[in-house]
Structures are given as C-alpha cells and as structure tokens.
Amino acid sequence: MVTISRNELRELLKACPDVKLVEVLPEASFLEYHLPGAINAPLSDCFNERVLFLIPEFSQMIVVYSLNFACQQSELAARCLLELGYESVFDYEPGKVDWRAAKLPVEYGPSIMNESIQSKSCESADRTPPL
Asked: Is the pLDDT of residue 6 over 50?
C-alpha cells in the first residue's frame, strides 16, 4: 500500500481523471461532505461486497480516504482492497479534514454512483420487505 499526500492526490486527479476516490467512513459522514467525485464504501461487514460491485475492474486505480491521520479506516480499507486483488491502491492518510482545511472543493450529499446502487447494497438486502 502506498500513501499519498494532498498535493500528490491533486496531481494524480489531474493526470488520471478516471481514478476512483473511495471514502470509507459511514454514510452520515459522507453525506456531510466528501471529495469531489468520491463514492462511499463504509468500512463495515459489507465493505468487500460493496467495493467489488462498485469497482469490478481489479486494474482500476483507487484512492481511499477517511477523516484524518488519527483515523485508521483508510489504511485498513487499503489493505482489504489489496487482499481482494486490486493492483493500484493508494491511501490518502490526511483525509477529508486535510482536503477541506486546504480550502479545496468538496461535495455535499450522496454521489450519483451511490444512489444508483443503494438498492443493491448488502445493507438493503438485509431489510425485510414491507408487507
């Protein structure tokens, strides 16, 4: 796993616009704000299934992030992704607090990608259908 700084991430996003940004915090945190274009795959029991659904191509370049340096979720997620077989995984350790502190753009609310898969997530599969 390779860690990446804010400046390196900015350059990577400019050079490779197809990079997948993955926030691994719970949905409530993602909805509060997230990096532009990011998708949400909370580090939970369903993490592996969700990522495999959202990013089926193992050669896809992925950058995971969480809240800040103290939050270890992005590091754990990066390790999971490598164990699943993803080939190019980076950990933006400073997280979204660092990004926003630098006054870089953020987005609010759900991502289009997350809304389209909501009904297919394992969390919704565990729900009992209404009678």
From this structure: yes
Do 87 and 25 contact (CB within 8 A), yes or no? no
pTM of the model: 0.85
Q: How far is CA 18 from CA 28, 37, 40, 42, 43, in A?
A: 25, 10, 16, 21, 22
Q: Interhelix angle for 73-84 vs 47-54, to 10°?
A: 60
pLDDT value of position 113: 56
How confident is the prediction for the chain on average, in pLDDT? Answer: 88
- List, in order of start, the domains of the chain with CATH numbers: 2-105 (3.40.250.10)
126 pLDDT above the threshold of 50: no
- Residue given tokens 């409530």 in the structure block: 28
